């Protein structure tokens, strides 16, 4: 069973309390019932060697065009997390 925590699409994202607890709980129940479980987390990649204050790190961001409804917001919009190429690589494993 493959569980996927999707990317964040927003103006900002912080990695406080970012673990996908719901998916991890579901995965635990599935595993207890005999399923092979795998999780791809598109948001939280491996932390860098040097962490920031409070053991946080910057989530990678790819700038994207804003959805039409958000075009007047004066901030850069993007996808936070691993690259689509990294996702596809993880998916093929």
Brief synopsis:
With 93 residues, the protein is an alpha+beta fold. It has helices at residues 21-32, 84-92, and strands spanning 2-5, 8-10, 38-41, 61-63, 78-80.
Explain the overall architecture.
The chain has 93 residues and is α+β, with helices and mostly antiparallel strands. The chain has one domain (2-92). It is built from 2 helices and 5 strands, in the order ββαβββα. It has helices at residues 21-32, 84-92, and strands at residues 2-5, 8-10, 38-41, 61-63, 78-80. The protein has a 3-stranded antiparallel β-sheet, with no helix packed on it. The longest helix has 12 residues, at 21-32. The chain is globular. The two termini are 13 Å apart. The model has no long low-confidence stretch (mean pLDDT 91).
Topology:
Elements: E1 2-5, E2 8-10, H1 21-32, E3 38-41, E4 61-63, E5 78-80, H2 84-92
Parallel strand pairs: 1-3
Antiparallel strand pairs: 2-5, 4-5
The overall pLDDT average reads 91
**Major beta sheet, strand line-up:** 2-5-4
The low-pLDDT segments are none
Please state roughly what percent of the residues sit in beta strands, choosing from under 5%, 5-15%, 15-25%, 25-35%, 35-45% or over 45%.
15-25%
Tell me roughly what share of residues is in helical segments.
10-25%
Strand count, sense and barrel status of the largest sheet are: 3 strands, antiparallel
Basic shape: globular
Instruction: List how many beta strands DSSP finds.
Output: 5
Rg calculated over all Cα atoms: 16 Å
Q: How many discrete domains?
A: 1
Which structural class best describes the helix and strand composition?
Answer: alpha+beta
Quaternary form: single chain
Listing every helix as H and every strand as E from the N terminus to the C terminus, the arrangement reads EEHEEEH
Number of DSSP helical runs: 2
- Distance between the amino and carboxyl termini: 13 Å
């Amino acid at each position: 069973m493959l569980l996927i925590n999707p990317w964040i699409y927003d103006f900002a994202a912080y990695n406080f309390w970012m673990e996908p607890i719901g998916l991890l709980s579901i995965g635990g129940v599935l595993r207890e019932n005999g399923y092979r479980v795998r999780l791809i987390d598109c948001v939280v990649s491996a932390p860098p060697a040097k962490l920031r204050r409070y053991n946080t790190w910057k989530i990678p961001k790819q700038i994207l065009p804003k959805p039409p409804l958000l075009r007047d917001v004066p901030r850069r919009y993007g996808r936070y997390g691993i690259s689509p190429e990294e996702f596809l690589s993880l998916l093929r494993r």
